[in-house]
Amino acid sequence: MSFSTSSKSTLDINSSNFDPEYYVQDLLRKKGLEELVAVEQDMVNNVRRLDSEMQSLVYENYSKFLNATSTVKDMQNRLTDAHSEMNSLSSRMNKITDLSDSLTEKFAKNCERVKKLNEARDSVKRLEFLIKAPQILQTCVEQNDFSKAVNTFVSIQPKLEKLKNLPSMAGIASDSEKIMEGVKKQHSRAEFAHLLERVMTIFEQIVDKRFSNESNSVDCSLFVKSLDRICRKISVLARLSPDFSFTRMNSSIVHRAAKHQIILCRQFVGETIQKAINEAFTKLNNSTPIAFSSSHSDKGQFYSSGANNNNNARKTLLRELLDKIEHCVLHSIKSALASLLMFTATDIIFSSIPHFTAIFGFDVHEQIVIGSIQDLTTNINLRIDSLTENEEEGKGTELLIFCALLRNLRLKHLEYLLELAQQQYRLNDFHFSNQYKLTNIETPTSQLQQLIEKLLRKYIHVESLSLSKIANKCIFTFEWAECSETPQRVRTLIKHLVRSVAEKDVDVAALLENDSFTASKERTPESSHG
């Protein structure tokens, strides 16, 4: 095997072990005349090709060498020029340095003198302005530019005080003071108070606009602190200008801002309650309907079997939804009362404004408690009135939930909320006139009772239509006169009607039963048939 490898390397032209004589002998031994001629021709062509390539490489390398030589020579020339320019620049820099040192030495001798001359020039300009001060002030007065006149006099007054003892400046100071005395006489104290009133009116409008743009009703602390800071700053101005009453402005700003915050809280209460109602009804609509199972005795009587668990689950769901809405109503109103209570804190300056605490407490009582309940009843009324005939179907349970909610508000929570508002804002300590008369509990109680009755009538109407449709289907589906239907099919429709009645019974028992009524009675075949 080693011999074979060695022979191959001696026959490979590209190998370093190539043996030409052995290669020729191998060709003569293996190939014929024509093949030898072809090999010779191929070798001649390869030699010529390689020779041509060799010449091309030589020419290319020589050309590159010439280009490199030219480039190097050009760089040498440029470096020589740059070196000469650097030498010239260095000599010039030395000359500049020498000239700078010379100039510095010459200017240093006159630096103090130039500084004194500049100071003298500034003093002359100031004196020139002081000398022309009476003329400048008179021009401003003639042009009714009193603001510029006052600013000019205020800027030169300290200098006139220092120089008025000089004979040359005494007349200038006297003339300037006479001109300003004339300005003072032209504008009396009443005119100044009128100007201040106009400015403060604009300020009041800006403050009102800023507070009216506030939309956060969850936390009143920042709102109250900002309002308190504004009132304190206005109170400080009252000491500086006794001719203008700032108490009225403070009172107006506070009353408007407080009313705006009360309205925001009322809107927040309404939105929170509406959101809870929508979430509860969405959960109700997505809940699984009651599934009733049935069995038959030998006598053909119908019993509800296995339905107690479903009934209890339905009751639990309805009571949970009612409790959620009821809790939301109470919590949102109580939170609004607690948040607005910050307006009556003793460390707030505007709490000392006469009658503010009483009027504010009255507004909270009427807007947050009475107003929120009125908003709830209004929304429920709109919800009922907007129902079309097609939308009424399936809304009976929602009507019952509204009935139970309003009943609990009327019987349990309304009196508590009114007493809570009156206690927190100490309304019993104030004597209100007819203009500020607290709403009696009978008014919202009567409104709630009327709406409850309306809801019950609507519920009866909706469910009666629903049961009537089922009964009509039972009657008109079969040919009762011919008695062609089997008892099984008839029993199925009757069971459907009984189940529908049982569903209504479960809803009514869950939502409208008395507190002492612990368990609803199960419907039996006897009770179904009356």
UniProtKB/TrEMBL annotation:
Subcellular location: Golgi apparatus, trans-Golgi network
Coiled-coil stretches noted in the UniProt entry, renumbered to this chain: none
Keywords: Golgi apparatus, Lipid transport, Protein transport, Transport
Transport found in the keyword field: yes
Biological processes per GO annotation: endocytic recycling; Golgi organization; Golgi vesicle transport; lipid transport; lysosomal transport; protein transport; retrograde transport, endosome to Golgi
Pfam families associated with the record: VPS51_Exo84_N
Main localization (coarse): Golgi
GO CC, one annotated term: membrane
Keyword field contains Transport: yes
Family per record: Belongs to the VPS51 family.
Role of this protein: Acts as component of the GARP complex that is involved in retrograde transport from early and late endosomes to the trans-Golgi network (TGN).
Summary of subunit composition and partner proteins: Component of the Golgi-associated retrograde protein (GARP) complex.
Record protein name field: Vacuolar protein sorting-associated protein 51 homolog
Lineage: Eukaryota, Metazoa, Ecdysozoa, Nematoda, Chromadorea
